[in-house]
Design a protein that fits this description.
With 74 residues, the chain is mainly α. It is built from 2 helices and 2 strands. It has a domain of 43 residues. This is DUF1289 domain-containing protein.
Length: 74
């Protein structure tokens, strides 16, 4: 039995490419400059790990927005 072709892990880029100096994250996709620069050479496993970090960052950013006194944005 043959396996279906693997689906490439899509890029998180949303076309808003501006780095936030306070967090070191892109304001659009929340990746660091190193994650952006290395994206094309990462394995699918490593790309999925970046996606997991982005989910955590989005969660942290939403929590920070709800409670600004809670501390760091990182």
């Amino acid at each position: 039995m043959t396996r279906p072709p693997a689906v490439a892990v899509r890029s998180p880029c949303v076309g808003v490419c501006r780095m936030d100096p306070a967090t070191g994250w892109c304001e659009g996709c929340l990746r660091t400059i190193d994650e952006i620069a290395s994206w094309s050479s990462l394995s699918d496993e490593d790309k999925r790990a970046v996606w997991m970090r982005l989910r955590e960052r989005r969660h942290d950013r939403r929590a920070q927005a709800r409670n600004p006194a809670s501390g760091s944005t990182r």
